[in-house]
Structures are given as C-alpha cells and as structure tokens.
Amino acid sequence: KTVCDLNLSSVLMNSNLVHRADSFFLATKMAAPLTLLLIVAVTIRAVLFRSSWAELISERVEVVSPLNAWKRVVEGLALLDLGVSPYSGDVFHETPFMIYLFHFVVDYAEIVFMVSPDLVFCLSRFLTSLKQKYALESDRYPADCLELLRSPKEMFYIPLKVAMFYLLNPFTILSCVAKSTCGLNNAIIALFILCTLKGSALLSGILLALATYQSIYPLTLFAPALLFFLQRLYIPVNLRRSSFWFFTLQYAFIYVGSLVVITGLSFFLLGSWDFIPSVYGFIFSVPDLTPNIGLFWYFFAEMFEHFRLFFICVFQINVFFYTIPLSIKLKEHPVFLIFMQIAIISIFKSYPTVGDVALYMAFLPAWSHLYRFLRNIFLVSCVLLACSALFPVLWHLWIYAGSANSNFYYAITLLFNFGQILLVSDYFYAYLRREHHLTHGLYLKKKDGTEATLVLK
Amino acid sequence: MAAHRCGLSLVCILIFSSLAHPSSCDTLEKANDNTAEKRSISEVNTDGSVAGEALNERQWQSTDAEVDRSDSTTHSEALTPAAARDEFQEELVIRPLHSGDIYASFQFRTLWDTDFLQEGQKVSHYRLFPKSLGQVLSKFSVRELHISFTQGFWRTMQWGQPFIPSPPGAELWVWFHDTVSDVDGNWKELTNVLSGIFCASLNFIDLTNTVQPSASFKPLGLGNATDHRFLRYATLPREIVCTENLTPWKKLLPCGSKAGLAVLMKSEKLFHSSFHSQAVHIRPICQDEQCSSKAWELRQTLNVVFDLHTSGQGKKEWSLFKMFSRTLTEACPLASSSKVYVDITDNPEGELFELSPATPLLGQAVVLGDRRTYSVYDLSRAETFGQLRSFNLLLRWKGDSGDMLRPLLHAERYVAGFGLQTGEIHTVIYNNHPYRAFPVLLMDSVPWYLQLYIHTLTVTSKSRDNKPSYIHYQPAKDRHRPHLLEMLIQLPPHSMTEVTVQFERALLKWTEYTPDPNHGFYVGSSVVSALVPSMVAMRTNFTQDQPLFSSFVPVKEESSYFVRVYTEPLLVNLPTPDFSMPYNVICLTCTVVAVGYGSFYNLLTRTFQVDEPSPPLSKRLANLIRRMRGVPLLT
C-alpha cells in the first residue's frame, strides 16, 4: 500500500512541476484568443444592456428568482433610504454584504455585472491542472487506453473552451443582462475553485465561507475542497492518521472561522439578526412560490398542508444528502466531485435560475474526454434546448394569453429538470466508466474471447 | 298581585346581591355620585346655562316616559337612579341629490355619562345603552370603536360628500386604551365578538389584513392619543351586507324597530337601493364646552341612496312611503329629540320642488364646509302627524335640478397593466378648489400577495414630480401582515395628482385561494383624509342643540373641515395553480426527484463488470447433477 502511495505521490509531484511550467506557457500563448473572447462577450452584454430587451429579460422568472432579482436589490436600497429595515418586509432576501456592496456601486451596477462573469473565466485557465496527471501517468495504464488520455494539444484548448462555454452561454448572458446577483455568487464560487486548484487553503476556505454565506448550499463544496487539498498534500484519507485530522481541522477552522466572522460583520453592519430568517429561512422554508425553473414552486403550491413540513425537509435534505456517498465514491477525483456538487445544487436548490445552470455547464468542456462514453447526450441536449425555447412560450400562454394554465409551465420545468438529471448522471456514468477502462483496458474480452459489454452490477 | 310579588322578590335579590358583590355596591355609590353631580348641574343652571337646563328637562322627560313601564322596571330604577343619566336622540336627514337620487341618512345617538374603563368599576346596569356593546367596551378596554358595513360605492362625483363616509364592504377601526398590554390579542377577540354581534364575517380579520396607520386615523373622541400601537384598522372589501347585518344593528336601538324613525327600516326597501351603509361609532366625548364631564357616545348611522328617478316611471317625486313603504306615526318614546330634516338649500323659493306637508320650522347647519338650510319636522310634537296620525313626507319636483356639484376633494383608483405577473396601482386625487392648495393624507393597505415595489412609487401633479413630504411605509410579510403605505401629499389648486406604484402578483398555495379564485382578490379602498379649506366659517364652539349629522367630526379650526374620501376597492386577478392536481403534482415531482436519486444510487453502489451471459437452463441442471455426483462440471 505504501508503495502505491509513494508511486502516486511522485506522479503528483511531477504533474505539479510540469503544471507550473505549463501555466506560464499557456499565459503567453493563450492571451490573444482569450482577449478576443472577452471582447466579444462584453460587447454582447453591453449591447443587450442598452437595448429594450434588458427590461424584458430582467422580468423573466427563469432568469431571476426572489433571491437574486435586481429589482429587489433596488427595493432593498429604497427601503434603506426610507429608514425601514430591508428585512422587515418579504421583498429583499440578499445578504447584508450585498446591500453594502450595491449601496456604493449602485450606479455602476452594469459594470459590476459585466465584470463578475469575467472573473469566472479566470477559473478556466487553471481547470486543466488535474487532467494533466493522466498524460504523465500513461505508462501506468494499459497500452490500449492511450486514446482515452488527452493529448497536450487538447488540454491546451480546454481553458479557452471553458471560458467560451461560460461567457457565451445564453443562460449566462441572460442572467447577466437581468443583473441577477446570481452572477456574483457564481463569481465567488469560481474564485473559490480557482483558489482551491491553486492550492491556497486559506483563500479557498474564506471564499467557500463567503459562498456559503451568500446562498447556504455551497456548504457541500467543503468536502471536495478538503479532498483536493488532502490529495495535493499527499495526505491519505485515513481516519486513523493524525495528519488527516490535523489538516481537516485546520481547513474546517478556516472555513467556520471566516463564516463566523462574516456573519458577525453582517450583524454589526445592520445591528440586528433579522437577515438570518429573511435570507436563510427564506431559502429553507420556501415561502415564495413564484414559478421558476426548479421543482419546488408547484410542488409546494399544491402540497397538502399537513405534509408541507415533511416534504420541505425531504427536499432540502435531498440537496445535501448526496455529498457523503459522492465524496466516498469520488474521493480520488475532487474536481469532478466539485462539478457534481454544483450540478446537484443547481438542480435541487429551492430557487434555481438559469445562471446556476450555466455555472455547472461551464465545466462540461473540461470533461470532453468523457464524450465517447455518454449514452444519451443527443437526447439530453434536445430536451434542454426544447425546454429553453418552451419556457417563455408556455409562460406567455399561461400568464398573458390565458389560454394555458399552470400545468403547462410545470410540465416544462419537470422536463427541464429531468434533462438536467439525465445529463449529470450521464457524465457521472461516463466518468466512472472511463476510470474502469483506465484500469482494465479499453477493449475488454469475455472469457470465451469475444468482445465484452460492460454492465453495472 | 303576582307582578307585585315578583317585583318584591326582585328587590330582595337586588339587596342581597348588593351586599354580596362589591360591584353592585359600586352602582349604589355611583348613585350617590350622581346626586352630587346633579347638584353641580343645578349650580350651572343658576349661572344661566340654557343647555344644562334643557339637558335636565330632557332627562326628566325621559324618566317620565319610563314610568309607564312595568312595575319591576320602576322598582329597579328606584334603586339605581344612575340609569336616568343617559339620553337618546334620533333624526333622519333627507337630501335630494343633484343626480336625481335621494339620500336618506338616519342618525341615532345614545349618550351615557359613565366610564367603562375606570379601574375597579364594573358597569352592570344598562338602560338605553346596549348592554352587548357596553360589555365589549369594558372587557377589551376599547377607547373608540368605529364599524361600518356598506353595500355599494358612494359616488362622490355625483352625490357630493356623505355625512359619514365609509368604504365598500366592512370597515373596523378601534383605538384601545393605553393600559392594554396585548393589543393584538384583544383585537383578535374583539373582532370575533363583534362578528357574533353583527352577524358579519369580521372573524376573517386577522393579522394579514390589519394595519396600524400612523396618521390617517386619529381618535375622533376625547383624548389625543397619538401612539398608533393602540390603533387597529382593517377592512373586508368583499363583505356582502344584507338583512342579517341589519337586524342585529336595529336591535341595538332603544326602541328597536318598533317605534320612532326605525320603523322605516324595512330591509326589502333598504337593500333595494344604490347605496346602503350602516355604521356604529362609539367614542368618549365631552358633555359640555368646558369638558368637565365625560360621556360615552354611541352613534348608529344608516345611510341609503335611493334611485327613485329611474324606478318611478319617469315621475320625479318621492315620499316616505315610496321609499320605505312605511309612514311615521310616532317618535320613539325614549328619545329626547326626534326630528326629520329635509335639505332645501337649493330650493329657497320653492321653485325646484314642493314639499308637503309644509313646515314653518327652518334650521341651518354648517356641514362639510357649506351652510345648508333645512326644513325641520319635529316628531315629538303631535301636530306633525296631523289629523291622520301619520306623517308621510312628500316631495314633488317641478324643475330640473341644477348643475352637477364638483366636490372639492375626490379620489379614484384603478389597476393598470396586463397579464398575471405584474401590475400597477394608480390612485388619482383631484383638488377642485380653484385657488387653494391643501395637503392630503393618502393611506393604502395592500395585501401581502401583491408585492409592492416602493422604489417604483411616483407622485405627479400637473405633469411634475410631487415629492410627498411624509412617507410611512411598512412592507408586507408573507402570510403575516399587509403593506401599509401612508403619505402626505400637497395637492396644488385645481389639479389632478396621480400616485402610481408597481406590484408583483404572487402564486399562493392552493388552499389559500378563496372560493371562485378566478373572480379575483379584493384590495381595500385607499383612504384620503384631508382638512379641506371651507367656503364658510365652521362652527368650532360646542353646542348641544346642533343637528346630529353636522356634529360627528370635531372641528378644530374655522377655516377648514375634515373630509375622508374612500376610493373604489380593487379587484385583482392572481395566477392560479390547477386545483385538481395535488396528487398528480406530488407524484410527478417525486418521480423526477426519484429518477435523480435512483440514477445516482445506481452509479454509487454498483460497479462495472463484464457481462457474462448465463449458461442455458439445461446446462445448469446438468451441472447441478454433476456436482451431486462429484463429477467435474461442464464449462
């Protein structure tokens, strides 16, 4: 076992060294296309901001939720100006930091919203760091697996693809033009991933605390971040090792400590704890049933009163529950675990918007090597595209034309979520299958020498 | 004889109970107090106060009327002369409106100089004041109570100002005494009790439609309480008013509907009208100008507007019998004054209409900033009823009525926008005064399911931004309290001021929708309260013999008068879920969640294996036998 550990650690050390050399290489050669991409992305947003579409987009329920609508931020600031606590009503559900951020930059809000997704693209440049290990480990794998590993050329374009997938994704653009604060939350999560991949435990802990403070659900990203650091520091995940516990406690301390500091600061900014029920109580108890792309609104609008609490608990536990089994299964692959967690949050959270969907979709180019194992990617992309087109149509039929009813819109949200679940589980399947092939060879044979089929048992 | 014995036993019981209960002792003490007070009144008399004398005389009259009652009553009265200190007045005001409609307003007032709220004193003997209300007042420490039930909408533009305005539906506002610690608890119980008393759905008043206006609803009676923590205001715009509300209301009158003006209140006529409003106002007031003694005033009003013009086959004439299908035969014997007023201000020479029987009595009153002339019929005089012992007032129109009067202050409201997602509330306030600007207080109480955005509030008059000088805004809490928006707006002379605010419609839980959800949800009227500049000097001095209809709102200064205008209630549609779907939705959503759970579970718990086809059945059986025989197995 120790030999294996040593082997792994030497490989990782190698990859680390190469990664450093490589990132310098990337920085010089990738600058031109990235700048071009950035200019295109900013232009699209600027044009849309100035067009009459901006107002229409900012009213869409798919793009903004009660948690992150820009209209509600403005309302919160207006209440503050009137001398009323923004949390005394049920309009404003942003955290106190958001009030103070926008209190100062409310006039430059457009710039803030244009800059925030650009922060995300920084993430893309470092996403590759882990993939590179496969390139170096090629000698460990069966010979026929070489085609499963990505060539350095492929790896080279991944950051650009990730940036493109995020910056030019219509979902991101819509959410940015609507000035949904979801973009800022995404930026915080992206920075957290960046810091984690860069190996800065302190910054990573602080940013994770900030993300948790913003919308509670990123709490589940604690596990993948911890696993990543453990792997990076060559600490095996062993409950009997003191080094494991030492680092875990250290990271948990950074995380909890900064969470306490941030919450305490918010208390001192406002002088009351009103924001706790108004932000986190609102997220957990789902009192606002305004339609959105999630599963909660219609379910709890139609729920029998005596089962409401039970189902709220079930649905909220559902979001957090997957952390434990996924961390066990994917403990060697924390980056994929991060992707899985973000995807699960954005599917099962109480007030999802398309901005959340865009965040996990930005990861998809990073898993381009899984493409050959995806079983129903065509079906899923068709479903997602069709749903995206049908959302505004059925909304119009229900709310404005009056010729449809709520069931139509509900059906589309169901289908959309079904598509997302299929997409995520498909990627999960493909990842596990690739892992299996990496250890057992790509072309498996049956006992009698014929070509074998892999099944889950 | 039996009656005498009965009376005697009653006296005995009263004496015993007075020995046993301290509360009864209080009534006796009260009697002593009263004699002392009476002495003070006679002292005032020597000073030459006519009002005091008149008051005294009336009281004696009313006690005389009491003597005719049964023996037992006389006995108990002999014990507690305190009861003689209350007084009842009734009047009916008829105003022909410019639109051709008839506005009839009944006013009944019971005055009682007792104090329900005094510590340690329990009022247990009631005479004219209804016991049901008196007990409510003392139990819930109510300082002031105003309740109105209205069917129809008062058209200010056509009808001018009513004497006492009220919004469509039910309105209740209560000032509690400032010793009350649990105001919300008291309020909840009070609404439930009143709901029983008036047979109305006041029990639907809860925290979600109760507000505490900071400036719009000041106490109308004694005491200048300003702490709006003790005020509760609620409206039920959807409340339908009908006979079952009228009957308990009539029962509160000392004569019931047996005698006096109340015999005119036949429900089939009253509810066959354009507007019907009945109200109860209870408040403490001053007995005299110096305010040396306090009295509780119970004022019951009933306003009704008949559209006789269209139903009268083109003939413009009306009579009491035509309106109420009754005539008057007597005043209420318990009333100290009983009068009928007919507004003849627009008809000084009798050229517009003709009144019969004619009356020599004319009265003048300054009401709502205008000096009006009235023909007065005193029902306490026998000659009013003439030979037939019946009084049927008849009015025959001769000419066409004059121009439409434009009320100085007028407000209306509507919802703008389309679709079920957002909308905008427009409130338009008109100041028709040619050269005076005046401030108005606008109060809006909007239910929580219409999410107001206060940053979209705009106030424009004469197409210029008119910033309110005072804004009190309390945002709604979902399922807990409504929005309350109060602002002070300066209305420029001869102008139209438009207040708009945007809102978003919420999707509710399926159990929160009212029956017939696609009918829409009502939003109560906004309230515009203002001190409007008066054309004539208002009477600020206190006089007892003022007609009741002109003495409701206290006048603080001569140059202006208080007006409250209610706008239309709004009917707003909300998006609705499909009410037949709960099972389906629960099943379908859970299926999708289960698909997610199931696929993850599958991938998490299983591992990849090469699929080896299982051998055929015959081979497996053969292997089983071979194993038993100990022979090598087939492959």
From TrEMBL, chain A:
It is a multi-pass membrane protein. It is found in: Endoplasmic reticulum membrane. Pathway: Glycolipid biosynthesis; glycosylphosphatidylinositol-anchor biosynthesis. Its main location: endoplasmic reticulum. Keywords: Endoplasmic reticulum, GPI-anchor biosynthesis, Membrane, Transmembrane, Transmembrane helix. The lineage of its organism: Eukaryota, Metazoa, Chordata, Craniata, Vertebrata. Belongs to the PIGU family. This is Phosphatidylinositol glycan anchor biosynthesis, class U. GO terms for biological process: attachment of GPI anchor to protein; GPI anchor biosynthetic process.
From TrEMBL, chain B:
GO terms for cellular component: GPI-anchor transamidase complex. GO terms for biological process: attachment of GPI anchor to protein. It comes from the Eukaryota. Residues 1-25 form the signal peptide. Residues 33-81 are annotated as: Disordered. Pfam families: Gpi16. Keywords: Signal. This is GPI transamidase component PIG-T-like. The gene is LOC109080311.
